[in-house]
Amino acid sequence: MPSANAKPLFVVLAPFVFVVLWATGFVVAKLSAGHVAPVWFLALRFPLALLFMLALALQQKAPWPDARHAFHAAVAGALLHALYLAPIYWAVANGLPAGVSSLIVGLQPLITTFMAAGLLREQISGRHWLGLAVGLCGIGLVIGPKLSLALLGGITPFTVSLAVFGACAISLGTVYQKKYASRIALSTGGVWQYAGASLVALLLSLALQDFAFDGSWQAWAALGWAVVILSIISILLLLALINRGEVSRVSAFIFLVPAVASLMSFALFGETLVPLQIMGMAVCAAAVVVVQRRR
Description:
single chain, 12 helices
């Protein structure tokens, strides 16, 4: 007979499902490459996600933030979505393996910790410095064997720097959200977040003057998956976990995302890692575990 404290199967499996779905975001970047201009892809995706969040907000009759908090939510959205994904999608479209990009972003908890120390005056402990050192060693092991000094076309200093920029953007967005927009309802805040992200993605597309969309099945499949699975189902799943107080479990499993994304990229696109790179991924996962482990 099940224990009275036993969690429903949904609650047990949901964090794993969320991590798998989240990892597909890097696969989508690879699938859309060559078929849709990477930043234009986001400029199409974010308004569609905005419409979903608007419908959710209206259905929930959630309170709308005042102008100041709406602005903060829009800034957070620009960082968390547009400035995070745009450089990563562009780097993947120009040769950076999806698995490597997911690994770099996987260090986001480390970067967030150090940003929070400076902006929120949160304390940095010895294990945070240890995690940072271990994480950087892991990154070096992953990018070192296949690092090229060319500008584009694989693991290059420029494409890696773009992925690092994206990781820093989502980290800054996380801290900004916590400091200025944490008390806004998730659905109405999401509307303003996607509004800010849509504006930035559109401006970047205009600056790049690249609006390519070849109408292939890859282009439509990537866009449909990004909107339905990543921006709708994943968000609904996250909202359900938040309501049940299970977000900490999701955070604890985030370190699995690079490995899952790499397996998907190998199965779908033939992306491979040499043994030294696999070791580097394990080292990076250990770094994140060190930082997230409770004292």
